[in-house]
Amino acid sequence: MTDYDNYFVYLSRRSRLGEIYRRAWLYPRLIRHLHGRTLDLGCGIGDLLAFRRNTIGVDINPRTVEYCRSRGVDARLMDTDRLPFEGGEFDSVLMDNVLEHIERPEPLLAEVHRVIRPGGNLLIGVPGTRGWDSDADHKVRYDERSLRAIGERSGFRHCETFHTPLWRSSWLDRRIRQYCIYASFERMV
């Protein structure tokens, strides 16, 4: 089995409780930061694409893209650090649990900057401590400060930082994999 196949199997085996959490709590919270035509970069098996209209997915994993298409949602295959879209094509971009998998994220963030219209939104989510520790593929660990810094260095203005599932909590950070840090940004001209 390839790494792509393994990751597809991992995503498809998520629990029913996890699905309920995403649909009832996480996605409604995230979409408050997403406006208009949205790109879900690293869309996985397309749960957000099925949840939110006017959202297109992109992923480097051909297996997950194929699966998304079989679900009837718009997902496209991308090359590393190259998005298959025109400049300024999106009002928002979501990178949910993607950034930590990339050793050098600057080229991809430059691509994100290119495809978001001026004034558009970027929402980045990264795992907390327990989530970070649960995946051997994680390459760069982010905290609030470093997440804000990478966004600002990439031409975005920081708007807000928040935590899920509830609020900032060192107790939850150490105990549940779903605990994440999110930062929202606005694309500067």
Explain what you see.
The chain is of the alpha/beta class and 189 residues long. It has one domain: Rossmann fold. 38% of the residues lie in helices and 25% in strands. It is built from 8 helices and 7 strands. The protein has a 7-stranded mixed beta sheet with strand order 3-2-1-4-5-7-6, with helices on both faces. The longest helix is centred in the first third of the chain and has 16 residues. The radius of gyration is 15 Å and the shape is globular. The model has no long low-confidence stretch (mean pLDDT 95).
Question: What is this entry, summarized?
Answer:
The chain has a single domain (3-187), classed as 3-Layer(aba) Sandwich (Rossmann fold).
